[in-house]
């Protein structure tokens, strides 16, 4: 696996937040605004550093195995957070937010080589 710089992580983190926060704001509608922001930003804040800094160093046989494990980890942990705060359909929301993040992130990488 390639060494990750803080700058590269930060760029990807900001893009992830920009994509995933709107999903989680919709998922938490009906709650106080501050609570919605904390939940929405907190979801990927909990998982993103693990996916970027911890999981890559565990010796995966190839990128696709790492990718599947990392995204599965993010989806499950974020769904558990949503379930803990009693969001309806937490797994569906987490899957949608992470799929959107992966798709847009991959498109940005392919089109402009960023983040």
Can you give the mean pLDDT?
94
The number of helical runs is 4
Provide the β-strand percentage band.
under 5%
Characterize the overall form.
globular
Distance between the termini: 17 Å
Number of strands: 0
The residue fraction in helices comes out at over 70%
Largest sheet: none
- Write down the secondary-structure element order: HHHH
Radius of gyration: 14 Å
| Unreliable segments of 5+ consecutive residues | none
The SS-based structural class is mainly alpha
What is the compact description of this entry?
The chain contains four helices and no strands.
Task: Write out key terms for the chains shown.
115 residues
Describe this structure in words.
The chain is an all-alpha fold and 115 residues long. The chain has helices at 6-27, 33-54, 63-84, 90-112.
How does the SSE layout of this entry go?
Blueprint: H1 6-27, H2 33-54, H3 63-84, H4 90-112
């Amino acid at each position: 696996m390639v060494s990750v710089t803080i700058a590269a992580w930060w760029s990807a983190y900001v893009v992830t937040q920009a994509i995933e926060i709107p999903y989680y704001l919709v998922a938490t509608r009906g709650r106080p605004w501050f609570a919605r922001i904390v939940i929405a930003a907190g979801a990927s804040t909990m998982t993103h550093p693990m996916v970027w800094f911890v999981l890559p160093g565990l010796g995966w046989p190839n990128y696709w195995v790492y990718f599947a494990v990392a995204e599965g980890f993010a989806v499950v942990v974020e769904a558990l957070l949503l379930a803990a705060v009693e969001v309806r359909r937490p797994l569906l929301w987490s899957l949608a937010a992470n799929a959107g993040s992966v798709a847009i992130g991959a498109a940005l990488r392919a089109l402009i080589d960023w983040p």
